[in-house]
Write a structure and sequence with these properties.
CBS-domain; CBS domain
């Protein structure tokens, strides 16, 4: 097992992203078209937020698909900035993959943004860490991703797409099992988060939070 692998060795330099001023409807369409569950929100080159598919869907459902008008704000008036969540956790290009795994588990996130000189330069997912054989520091692991530049409509990142889906590759999955063969740690098959304890529900290995939904 290699222990000298760094973030720079495995990060996706091409990824999907949107800006705060992008129409939410367009960003939601990008999530669907690219089959990813999260976009990095950029202000210039700085990562300032995240847009998850659940947040986007929830906001659009709240408007009832209304175009807006006299009655108030419709989905045509919503922007990414009005519903985005807090920024994804960050690491530096020269950080170890073990450090990435620790952050993913601690934050309950499925991806992490690589920042150099104050700008987002890539993304690493839990699946990337597992595929690279990073030494386990704690528990769990898995995958997905996104990013781009800032202006008009949602677009492919400065360099385009990450992997086949900006890093979100459903085929990249891994987990640990207990003596009975049941998954105990790894990436949730529902939300994609890297968690220390997976449980079985409806034939899937999911985190406790998704099991309760």
């Amino acid at each position: 097992m290699r222990t000298d692998t760094t973030v720079r060795d495995v990060m996706h330099r091409e990824f999907l992203g949107v800006s705060e001023s992008d129409p939410l409807r367009d960003a939601a369409a990008l999530l669907v078209d690219e089959e990813t569950n999260c976009l990095v929100v950029l202000r210039g080159g700085e990562s300032v937020g995240r847009l998850g598919c659940r947040d986007a869907l929830g906001a659009l459902l709240d408007t009832g698909g209304d175009e807006g008008g006299e009655g108030g704000e419709g989905d045509g008036d919503l922007t990414v900035g009005s519903v985005m969540g807090p920024p994804l956790p960050t690491v530096a290009p020269d950080d170890s993959l073990a450090a990435v795994e620790e952050r993913l588990v601690a934050e309950g996130s499925d991806r992490i943004v690589v920042v150099e000189d104050g700008e987002a330069v890539g993304v690493v997912t839990g699946g990337d860490v597992l595929a690279a054989g990073a030494p386990r520091s704690g528990d769990g692991v898995h995958d997905p991703l996104s990013d781009g530049e800032a202006t008009g409509e949602p677009r492919r990142g400065d360099t385009a797409m990450m992997g086949s889906d900006g890093g979100v590759d459903p085929a990249v999955e891994a987990s640990s099992t207990d003596a009975s063969g049941s998954p105990t740690q790894g990436v949730c098959e529902s939300c994609g988060a890297l968690v220390p304890d997976l449980v079985s529900a409806n034939g899937q290995a999911v985190c406790p939070e998704c099991r309760e939904v």
